[in-house]
Amino acid sequence: MITIRKFYYGDIPEGTAGHAPAEKQDSPATDWPLWEVFIRSKQGLDHKHVGSLHAADAKMAIENARDVYTRRLEGVSIWVVESKQVHASSPQEAGELYEPSVDKIYRHPTFYNLPDEVNYM
Amino acid sequence: MDSSLFDFSLYVADSALVLGQRNGAWCGHGPVLEQDIAITNITLDLIGQARSFYQYAATLQGKGASEDSLAYCRGEREFKNCLLTETPNVDWAQTVLRQFLFSSFQCELFTDMQQDPNHTVSAIAEKSLKEVNYHCRWSGEWVERLGDGTPESHRRMSQALINLWPYTGELFKPASYEKAIGIDSAALQGRWMNRVQPVLEEATLSLGNLLHVYMHTGGKSGIHTEELGPLLAEMQYMQRMYPGCDW
Predict the structure, then answer these.
(1) How far is Cα B11 from Cα B122, in angstroms, rounded to an integer?
(2) Facing B37 at nearest CB: one of A54, A55, A68
(3) What is the pLDDT of residues B104-140, one digit of tens each?
(4) What would the mean pLDDT of A46-56 be, rounded to a whole number?
(5) Which of A54, A60, A71 sits opposite B41 (nearest CB)?
(6) Which residues of chain B make contact with A67, given a CB cutoff of 8 A?
(7) Half-sphere exposure of B28 (CA within 13 A, CB side)
(8) E strands, A1-121, in order
(9) Contact (CB, 8 A) for A8 and A84
(10) Is the pTM of this model over 0.90?
(11) Which residues 18-47 of chain B have a CB within 8 Å of chain A?
(12) Which member of B50, B138, B184, B213 lies 3.0 to 4.6 Å from B13 by CB, making a disulfide possible if both were Cys?
């Protein structure tokens, strides 16, 4: 029997996060999905993750995000994504995913000495 | 002093303050965390609107009047809030419906007030209109979700409509001070119905016989229901016990 583990919030397994496990077959209609909220500040260029909330649908999620996360003019644009649509890398795989890059300094542009003629590229 | 302008400012301020006080009872008791914050945000907006109009009324009255003396030291017979704002919370359905019916009205009233030649009135209306547009949108969506929801939510929302509709007529019966400063609230009724009816339809709520129900009045001239007394007693307690107190 293959057990598929889905990670709902970043890479925290749902067993410790307290959310409903993915193996559950029927979820009652009263369970509102969890949404991740991203806000772009007035001076910013990118939406930053600020937290999460429960809502019944996308419209309510945006309004809830507006009510909860923009009270102090933290932002002027809101993105909401259902948490189950966020796919995260597994912490156990961190070794094979990220460590090989540590000693490959030739991948940085500053590793190369440019001749003066093109130094200000 | 232009007493009509003073009375009108009090009417707008009192209505916002009383509804704010009503909504404030939900603080910490909302059905869901985000909705608890939503209703208290709306309450803060309402209290902000009330403060603006109380401050203006205080400058009109002079003689040492302040926003606090007007909010805390007047009794029921002096309060001019419309009766809809003092109706009890009962449950979430009635609370969001009350907000929707009142915010839709505020939308239309403030739109007209924006055109008022009085700069203070039009400036406060312009700022408040942005807040009120959100209140309308938020509460309207909840009316739809609960009306067209489960059998229980539909039952509660239908009951809320029966409870609240008889207090909507008063909104469009102008008091003498409204007419004196040129606000024709009777003319707002058509525009208000154009906002309210589509939402009620979407929420599968029908007005039916409610369209001919007896409409309660009196709030705008200080004649209130039995609800306002205890509400003011709680709200004004500290100022009455320790007059002039501050933190």
Answers:
(1) 16
(2) A68
(3) 999 999 999 999 999 999 999 999 999 999 999 999 9
(4) 93
(5) A71
(6) 34, 37-38, 41
(7) 1
(8) 34-40, 48-54, 77-82
(9) yes
(10) no
(11) 32-35, 37-38, 41
(12) B50
